[in-house]
Amino acid sequence: MRLTLEIWRQDSPAAEGRFETYVVEDATEEMSLLELLDRLNEQLVEEGLEPVAFDSDCREGICGACGITVDERPHGPVANTPSCRQHLRSYRDGDRIRLEPFRSDAFPVQRDLVVDRGALDRVVASGGFVGVDVGTAPDADARQIPFRTAEKALDFAACIQCGACVAACPNGSSHLFTGSLLEHLATLPQGQPERGRRALSITATADAEFGPCSVYGECAQVCPAGIPLSAISAVNREAVRARLRGGRDD
Prior knowledge:
The chain folds into 2 domains: about 5-110, Ubiquitin-like (UB roll); about 115-130 and about 145-245, Fumarate Reductase Iron-sulfur Protein, Chain B, domain 2 (Orthogonal Bundle), CATH 1.10.1060. A 5-stranded mixed sheet has the order 2-1-5-3-4. It has a two-stranded antiparallel ribbon with strand order 6-7. A hairpin with a 2-residue loop joins strand 6 (about 110) and strand 7 (about 115). It has helices at about 35-45, 120-125, 145-155, 165-170, 175-185, 195-210, 220, 235-245; strands spanning about 5-10, 20-25, 70, 75, 95-100, 110, 115. Helix 3 (about 145-155) runs antiparallel to helix 5. The protein starts with a strand and ends in a 6-residue tail after the last helix. The protein has about 250 residues and is an alpha+beta fold.
């Protein structure tokens, strides 16, 4: 299968970027988008040219490192699927594909398809954790949690922090990511002792790093973890709850 690729090339954060066009003659339907980039880079290295820089790690849809924008859609044409699991069976011989980095002011381009998603890490660092007493670990069944409660928390904890929700949002909002973080920690008893402080800290950091929620739902359509759109409600709910309680924790 012959595919023409228009790829964003940018030598450094301060450099001016541009699209460059390449052709891969021997692509197959079984290839993922990342494997297509691997094949292109093999060609470029053989020709003595600079390979395209892009992020990847597990390539199993778990780590969230591989995000790129494909024809103006974060991750690719198949909904709720990470870039590493987007296969070329979505394309036909002779198609043209445009690949560029996630587009958001919160994600500055470092080089080619690589962006700095440190803003997501700063949200997590501001309160995405629980404090526990040191010492002997408690028995697994020492604190019983109803099945439905545990399943709800796990559904929201499934976020892989890829940033596709931010790239999909016209306002560059992180509400789906931030809401999933707040929701899963507020659902479990382990997250209750710091609930108020966490809500105020996380929402303040998210407001500083990202834009406001557009409430259109583009984020949920591209989320590889299938985080439900209802997660965005946790952002304002948890913040208002904390303010009404004067920032006190449960």
